[in-house]
């Protein structure tokens, strides 16, 4: 089995408000996460992503990626 300890996986890329909603949902499930570019995407989104689209990112530990993916799917369904 591969050791994923310390490795982060991106589970969402999109609007800041959606990233913050997902972060809140993860925290309710005791799932630590990190929102990347949350401030820069609202100040100058073209500086962090091509065209300024999908600038905010949500990252989790690799060992939590499966659960996080399921929660993101539930969020959008």
Beta-strand proportion: 15-25%
Write the H/E string, N to C.
EHEHEH
Helical content, roughly?
Answer: 25-40%
Calculate the mean pLDDT score and round it: 83
Overall 3D form: globular
Low-confidence blocks of residues: none
Total helical segments: 3
Give the neighbour order of strands across the main sheet.
1-3-2
N- to C-terminal distance: 32 Å
Radius of gyration, in Å, reads 13 Å
Overall number of strands: 3
Structural class computed from helices and strand pairing: alpha+beta
In short:
The chain is an alpha+beta fold. The chain has 3 helices and 3 strands, in the order βαβαβα.
Task: Name a few traits of the molecule.
77 residues, alpha+beta, three-stranded antiparallel sheet, globular
Write structural notes for this entry.
The mean pLDDT is 83. It is globular and about 35 Å long. It is built from 3 helices and 3 strands. Strands 1-3-2 form a 3-stranded antiparallel sheet, with helices on one face. Helix content is 39%, strand content 21%. With 77 residues, the protein is α+β, with helices and mostly antiparallel strands. The protein has helices at residues 16-28, 40-44, 65-76, and strands spanning 8-14, 34-36, 56-61.
Helices, strands, pairings?
Layout: E1 8-14, H1 16-28, E2 34-36, H2 40-44, E3 56-61, H3 65-76
Antiparallel strand pairs: 1-3, 2-3
